[in-house]
Amino acid sequence: MNQHPELEVGAEDEPRPRRRDKEASKKAILEAGVEVFSLHGYDAATTKMIAATAGLNEQLITRYFGGKAGLLLAALSAYIDEEAQNEGYPDAADSVEGEIRQFLLHRHRRLLELQDFMKVFMPFSMRDGDIRGQLETIVFKGAERVLERLTDLQARGLIRADANLEAVGLAIGGQSMHISFHLRVGTTLDDRYLRTLIDEFARTLARGLAPTP
What we know:
The protein folds into two domains: 5-79, Orthogonal Bundle (Arc Repressor Mutant, subunit A), CATH 1.10.10.60; 87-209, Tetracycline Repressor, domain 2 (Orthogonal Bundle), CATH 1.10.357. Helix 1 (22-40) crosses helix 2, helix 5 packs antiparallel against helix 8 (143-155) and helix 9 runs antiparallel to helix 10. The protein has ten helices and no strands. The termini are far apart. By secondary structure, it is an all-alpha fold. The chain is elongated and about 65 Å long.
């Protein structure tokens, strides 16, 4: 009996990859899962296809993730962790409009990078409660940053005191997903026009948040 199944590939006549430790194997499977799910969709993807792409034994998917559904959730969880640690967020802006705009543009670039990934998981929000809850985390997690910035601007008197900033932050997070994912993949609008929508949304929302003269 092979003591190192992670060294095996699906077929005996295929070359065996170099030794991988557990974490490296899990990472390879996660990356292969996202790739195969993106190309074929979750339903058509098989663990055999994922294992072949990763260059690892198919049994490792069950061992590490409990099967295809577990791998899907693990990939989503890894994305949430990556999003929480995402660097490159811009410094604070001097205006409410500027803060909202730069958040939306930052997320616009990020969602372009993750477009294929999100195509895989978004349909499951319609039919799976667990995944729907995690997708809500993805949509609104980034709003924590803009909420913190808007709170500082409110303390400086640049936002009316009665504004519900928690609701505003969630609205901005949802609008980000709508413009930068749904409209990007579901319409023929080009990137220049989507950025125009971001500018107009930031401008209009900032006016609504302004203190009453």
